[in-house]
Design a protein that fits this description.
Radius of gyration: 19 Å
Number of domains: 2
Strand order of the largest sheet: 3-2-1-4-5
Largest sheet: 5 strands, parallel
Helix content: 25-40%
Strand content: 15-25%
CATH architecture of the largest domain: 3-Layer(aba) Sandwich
Order of helices and strands: EHEEHEHHEHHEEHEEHEEHE
Shape: globular
Number of strands: 12
Distance between the termini: 38 Å
Structural class: alpha/beta
Amino acid sequence: MIALIAGRGQLPTELIARLPEKPLVCAMAGSEPDQVEAEIVFRIEQLGSFLLRLKEAGVTEVCMAGAVSRPQIDPSTIDAATLPLVPVLQGAIAAGDDGALRAVIGILEQSGFAVKAAHEIAPDLLMGEGVPTKVKPGEIDKADAERAARIAFGLSAADIGQACAVRSGQAIAIETLFGTDWMLASLATRPDGQGGLLYKAPKAGQDRRADLPTIGPATVEGAAMAGLNGIVLEAGGVIVLDREAVIAACDRRGLFLWLRSAE
């Protein structure tokens, strides 16, 4: 049996629709899903008890999908089953996103669960190389994509984000704790006018079983409102929700979508 620890957004719904059997849908308090109903909501301070409950329910596999907020630990509510995990949890919360996820995955595996990636359940959420849109990237866009890939690699070392916006070889925005949508919204009043591209890719060395970068139709609208010319994704490394709607939105907005090979 598989448990889906669901966060916000469309991804949990996409995964549930593809699973042969209904998973046990769980959620962390403060990061409850907005499109599916969680059967179990747990506090991070009772993580140990939650894991015991999963075992009692016959769960052998766990998948984490959807956006979550970083929790604050209330020491007064930690239960006995979670006490041995406190040092790891404290380190995870203090770490960057990738470090935190590695710690959580480690706890799950040490507790006897196999951690499954969203794209293992639904391989069609990843797209291979190519440009499926009517608009194609030009030579300037190709140079900007190469520059963006180098910037994203640099962000990986600092465990900051998985996306950036580049125009004429210059970074005009980078993704931070607030996410891609916020980054794109920040470009709505950009002083340099229009142009450039959005680039998204996994962090270098990232454990791809959780937190793969994701886009959907709303990302296209955000990129258009930001005055960008297109979107570049690492082929096979970014989840694309509602693929046909994403391509149609790009065509409607006059943007290109380029699935670029990792170099």
